[in-house]
Amino acid sequence: MDYEQSPDRVVGTAAVGSGGHPKKAPVPVKIIVAGGFGVGKTTTVGAISEISPLTTEAEMTSASVGIDNPGQATMKTTTTIAMDFGVLTIDQTLKLYIFGTPGQSRFAFMWDDLIKGALGALVVVDTNRIDDCYPAVDYFERAGLPFVVGVNTFNGQMSYSLDEVRWALAIREDVPVLSFDARFRGSVRDALLVVLDQALDKAIRQKSSYS
Amino acid sequence: MTYPDPDDPAHPARPSVRPFLQSGPLPAGGYRPAPADEQPPAAEQSSALRPFVITSGRTNGADPDIGMETQVTVTPGAGPVRLSPEMRAIVGLCFEPVSVAEISARLRLHLGVTRILVGDLRAAGQLDVHVLDNETPDPETIMRVIRGLRAIT
């Protein structure tokens, strides 16, 4: 193939030539949506995103200690997980990314990459399977990431009250527990605004402690 | 005990391995798979090896600065260089600012592979990777996100 004359470069040159320099890159910020399987993470992401949720596959390595193979001290396992994410353009210089991530504890390795620089997290809970979200709550508590527990009410139904959910999760008083409906944009927006309030509190506390 | 030879042409590549080669609209830059004579023999015959071949065997070592949401653009005035098909496809997506996660999703490349290749392209002077100066979000930025979210209906 006459690689030097391949159309790619020509297209590339034309794009740069006509458009000048590429547009200034916006600042990306991100919020994590975490929870067990089937609690409505993808629905949540899709409700708020301006694009259909995209999926990226990540190879995750995690050290499982004596779980899969009790005979061995540690064993590294590699798993491919799919992460759905969406985007919301705040303005030309600011983009909000929403990453939906599986909540199982064995993916803790990925979460370290994922939460770096994250504003906060929404932990989605199905009251029929509250314990599915324990690993996510544990992780965000330990990592010091602001988070909010959002009970997805599906059809307006909850098996337990928010107080009962709070009791079951044994989370700190200042962690908000709210109910929302993952199918509705306004409801997801309000839940994310509570996450952002938490993020703002933390950012202000940090800033004042530095200065 | 015998294993099927991965290089044996009698075992065709699984169709699921690199779907972006087979269908879907071409991304900007008109990416097409390169003819076989440009590829190393292993890549040519066994797509099961691809992820490792693409990254020259590296499975980790991606630059920690390159996050999933990190924005990437083509370097203005970058000189023409020989690039692998995957790298050309990545460059072809970056005329507008785009995140690493979007590159991974649109090209159906694993996130880890994408991060490594983006790092390579940055080192080769083809891509600008916009690493944030301040990793912890500042209150002003968060306020802007809050105002932006409140504005949507």
Task: Jot down its keywords.
heterodimer; A: 211 residues; alpha/beta; Rossmann fold; 29% strand; disordered N terminus; B: 153 residues; mainly alpha; 3-stranded antiparallel beta sheet
How many discrete structural domains of chain B? 1
Q: Number of helical segments of chain B?
A: 6
In DSSP terms (H or I, runs of 4 or more residues), the helix count of chain A works out at: 6
What would you call the shape of chain A?
globular
Oligomer classification: heterodimer
Query: Quick one: CATH class of chain A?
Result: Alpha Beta
Q: Determine the mean pLDDT of chain A.
A: 81
The sequence of SSEs of chain B as H and E is HHEHEHHEH
Poorly predicted ranges of chain A? 1-20, 64-73
Helical percentage of chain A:
25-40%
**Alpha carbon gyration radius of chain A:** 20 Å
Number of DSSP E strands of chain A: 7
Strand order of the largest sheet of chain B: 2-1-3
Describe the sheet with the most strands of chain B.
3 strands, antiparallel
Structural class of chain B: mainly alpha
**Beta content of chain B:** 5-15%
C-alpha-based Rg of chain B, rounded = 19 Å
CATH superfamily of chain A: P-loop containing nucleotide triphosphate hydrolases
Q: What's the helical proportion of residues of chain B?
A: 25-40%
For the biggest β-sheet of chain A, the strand order reads 2-3-4-1-5-6-7
Short summary of the structure?
The complex is a heterodimer of chains A (211) and B (153). Chain A is an alpha/beta fold. Chain A has one domain (28-210): 3-Layer(aba) Sandwich (Rossmann fold).
What report would you give on this structure?
- The complex is a heterodimer of chains A (211) and B (153).
- Chain A is of the alpha/beta class and 211 residues long.
- Chain A contains six helices and seven strands; from the N terminus they run αβαβββαβαβαβα.
- The radius of gyration of chain A is 20 Å and the shape is globular.
- Chain A starts with 6 loop residues before the first helix and ends with a helix.
- Chain B is mainly alpha-helical and 153 residues long.
- Chain B has six helices and three strands; from the N terminus they run ααβαβααβα.
- A three-stranded antiparallel beta sheet of chain B has the order 2-1-3.
- Chain B is elongated and about 45 Å long.
- Residues 6-49 of chain B have low confidence and may be disordered.
- Classes of the chains: A alpha/beta (211), B mainly alpha (153).
